[in-house]
Design a protein that fits this description.
The chain is an alpha/beta fold and 481 residues long. The radius of gyration is 23 Å and the shape is globular. It starts with a strand and ends in an 11-residue tail after the last helix.
């Protein structure tokens, strides 16, 4: 079986969020199952050189054709081939999606080019996939082109929704850059404009999303696309994301000050001490709460702001790592000044510090408004940072609220999207940390012992690919009403 995985992000070459991690880990896990899987990614300036040049071919859009250079590299530690599609006017930029918290004004043109280039590179390199696996709105034109027949490539499509909130909305007049026939235009047309994610939902052979709970949630809370998702519910599957346990392994993590494991967790305390020293936090005996996240409303930062003074009254220390919305960055920078030695705000994206915060934290806070899958709660379990989460999407699927009656669970969770509910769950965690060290140690060990690797999830994707290929004559989704 031959699978082309197309993505706008791929760790370690270009990563903004969880998509970059998934795009690296899932293909690697598929390769271990014997799948001939290859990846297509824009050639960003962060891609290391040298690369093997494979040639140049024209990429047609709705206007003039543009040259596309193809280079081949491989995914570190797995050998999975990666095709880097290059067009410097679109991709030789400082950001993946934009700079300063906003998107580039020509993002439609950039990602239309990526989709067309991904479909065109296969004949150019002499390798034809059975299935093209596209991801999020940036590659939504791929299933649209394959279904409508505009693409010269004959392959089936799987489309994964990583976050339904980002849909690729554009004014209708911008559509001149798209190469669509009547089927394609019907698929993307919405409220006088263009919605690329809608088009992929309507045309993909199979649709997946990144947790079973999120797959159910979006049927009724689908960011305006509920009716389209309900119409395709028989083609929709929720598969929980895993994590790359080779990159995220506290026993062998090169980013950490000291290694540790579930069998010997003593190094975790050493990591906490080093982080406190490097960030100028006091060494007072209290729980360290970590937050590693995009600074976005989705992630629950409005709850943290509403409850902040009461959070700090619990006697905790707080480290926030991330970049995004300037209003959240400003709040935590100010909090750092108001609580010297207790709060640090690292307003940046740093893979090294993400690993270090997980290793040092006693508690990891993730109060998301919605969370399709979530990866940081899984990293936290593996690194012995007890998660405190809101029970939504993938967080609900992975974190079980601690039950003192049965001494069961692997974290603390709350249901209502409210500051008081978050504080209650966080308070329970802080009190256990202070008052019941043996139970806390069992909770940490339980999380570290869990297996959240990609192997099971990769087998589920393999089953989806096989179903797609077994469907010889799939019914076309109905035209929009």
């Amino acid at each position: 079986m031959r699978i082309l995985f197309v993505t706008a992000e791929l760790s370690p070459f270009a990563k903004v969020g969880g998509l970059g991690d998934v795009a690296a880990a899932l293909p690697a896990a598929l390769a271990r199952l014997g799948v001939d899987v290859r990846i297509a990614l824009p050639k960003y300036p962060t891609v290391p050189k040298p690369l093997r040049a494979l040639g140049t071919f024209p990429v047609g859009t709705g206007t003039a054709a543009k040259p596309c250079s193809v280079f081949q590299g491989s995914l570190p530690d797995s050998g999975v081939p990666v095709y880097f599609v290059g067009h410097d006017p679109y991709f030789d930029r400082a950001g993946v999606y934009g700079e300063g918290g906003g998107g580039y004004p020509d993002e439609l043109e950039r990602f239309a080019f990526l989709s067309e280039a991904a479909l065109g590179l296969c004949p150019a390199v002499g390798w034809i996939p059975d299935v093209v696996h596209a991801n999020d709105w940036h590659t939504a034109l791929i299933p649209i082109a394959l279904r409508s027949g505009v693409a010269s490539l004959e392959a089936r499509s799987v489309f994964t929704i990583h976050n339904l909130a980002y849909q690729g909305w554009f004014p209708r007049e911008r559509g001149e850059v798209l190469r669509l026939d009547s089927i394609g235009w019907q698929a993307v047309a919405r409220d006088g404009g263009i919605n690329l994610l809608q088009g992929a939902i309507r045309t993909a052979d199979r649709i997946t999303t990144v947790s079973p709970t999120y797959a159910q949630e979006i049927l009724t809370h689908g960011e305006g696309l509920e009716s389209d998702l309900q119409a395709r519910s028989d083609a929709l599957t929720g598969i929980l994301n895993g994590i790359d346990t080779s990159s995220w392994d506290p026993a062998r993590d090169p980013h950490l000050w000291a290694p540790y494991s579930a069998a010997d967790p003593s190094g975790k305390r050493e990591n906490k001490q080093h982080l406190q020293a490097e960030l100028g936090l006091s060494d007072a005996d209290g729980p360290l709460v970590g937050v590693v996240s995009r600074l976005a409303e989705q992630k629950g930062f409005d709850l943290m702001i509403a409850a902040f003074e009461r959070m700090m009254a619990l006697g905790l220390q707080l480290v926030v790592l991330g970049e995004g919305d300037p209003r959240y960055a400003s709040f935590f920078r100010d909090a750092e000044r108001r609580y010297p030695g207790r709060v640090r705000a690292l307003i940046e994206f740093s893979e090294r510090w993400a690993h270090r915060v997980e290793a040092a934290a006693d508690i990891f806070l993730m109060p998301s408004r919605f969370e399709p899958a979530g990866l940081n709660q899984l990293y936290s379990l593996r690194y012995g940072a007890v998660p405190v989460v809101r029970a939504t999407g993938g967080l609900r699927d992975t974190i079980r609220d601690y039950d003192p009656a049965s001494d069961s669970g692997n974290g603390f969770s709350f249901g209502a999207y409210a500051a008081e509910a978050m504080l209650e769950a966080l308070g329970r965690a802080v009190r256990m940390w202070h008052r019941d060290k043996p139970t806390w140690a069992r909770l940490v060990r339980r999380g570290m012992d869990e297996d959240h690797s990609w192997e099971d999830s990769a087998r589920r994707y393999l089953h989806v690919y096989r179903r797609v290929l077994a469907d010889a004559t799939p019914a076309r989704p109905g035209a929009p009403s």
